[in-house]
Each structure stands twice: as structure tokens, then as C-alpha cells.
């Protein structure tokens, strides 16, 4: 399973990139709008920090403009993934970019039919928005399950990347349901490492080891 953090915060990226398990960084217009530099400069900085894929989402409206924007950003990314919004224009751009050998991601996926169209257009990834689907009263987990099932049945190579994930439990569910990748905020990523029972166990081991060394030292002095 591929692990991505969804952020443009350079401090968060630096911290996460120090771990060998990170596969890259995903971004979107909202995330990039929080930075104080032009998007191309931010993406270039992220690319220098990450030994993995850097995802950029186009903000253009027409297929041709999406393609032009994508090609401009690809020039500063070593391993680019271009995110395209689901829709007719996005699908046309996806098909064109994929034919040029550029990895694409169809984002804002909310139905199995959309995921099928994305795979047919040559998308390397699709992003079902699990949390937002749940907000509508439907099951985001069920959507992931159905897309994975269709892709396996039809032998599509497109990978499902779980997006709009809101807790560490979502990451586990994505793995169980067969999603090939996940993207998450840094807070969730860092939370994957922690469990209160792990801390309790580690503290107990450290305490016992300290007492053991003190006992050996005491015996040495007495001897």
C-alpha cells in the first residue's frame, strides 16, 4: 500500500520524508492556497524534499488548459502525478496526458461509474472521497469496496487511493478493503505510530531494565 501525506506544509513534509515508508505528497488548490509562494515554487520545493511522487491538481476548466497547466508543472517534478477533476474535460485531459506517459489521478470520485470512466481514460489512480461520501449518508467504505471489486473483475490497472480520510481507523479499513494507496493529513499519518499500550509497555521495559542494571552495579560494588 502506498502512503501519501496531503499537505504543502514544508515542516510537515520534512518530518514525514525522514521516514522511508512515505511514498510522496499529494496537494490540491485549497492546500496550496495556504502557502505564501506561487504554486510552481511550492511544488518545486516539495519535489526537492521528497524521494517519491509529488501530486499536483490542475485548476483550469477546459481540457486543453488542464493539459497546458499540467505540462508546466511536470517540468519541476521528478515523479509527477497530475490530479484532474472528474468530468468530461478532466477525462479528456486524462486520456491525453496518459498517452504521453504522465501518471494521472482522477479526483472527486463519488460513484463506481465515475471510477470506471476514469480507468477507461487511462488514469493511474482514482480518488474516492470516503469522508465526504459518508457526509451524504452513503458509505464511503462500500464505495471503495465496489470500485476495488470492479477493477479486479475488469482487470483495470488503475489504483484506488482512499482520500478524505479522517482517522487512523480509516487507513486500516482502506487496507482491508483493498485500496492500493491512501493519502492523509500529517496529523493522521503521525497518529499511526502511537498507541497508549505501546507507551505503557515501553515504559515498563525501560523501568525493569534500569532496575536490572542498578542491581548488577550494586552486586559488583559489594563483590
UniProtKB/TrEMBL annotation:
Subcellular location: Cytoplasm
MF term (GO), any: aldehyde-lyase activity
The entry's keywords: Cytoplasm, Schiff base
UniProt name for this protein: Transaldolase
Spans traversing the lipid bilayer: none
InterPro entries: Aldolase_TIM, TAL/FSA, Transaldolase_AS, TSA/FSA_arc/bac
CDD domains reported in the protein's UniProt record: Transaldolase_FSA
Main location group: cytoplasm
Gene Ontology CC entries for this record: cytoplasm
Coiled coil stretches, renumbered: none
SUPFAM superfamilies per UniProt: Aldolase (SSF51569)
GO biological process: carbohydrate metabolic process
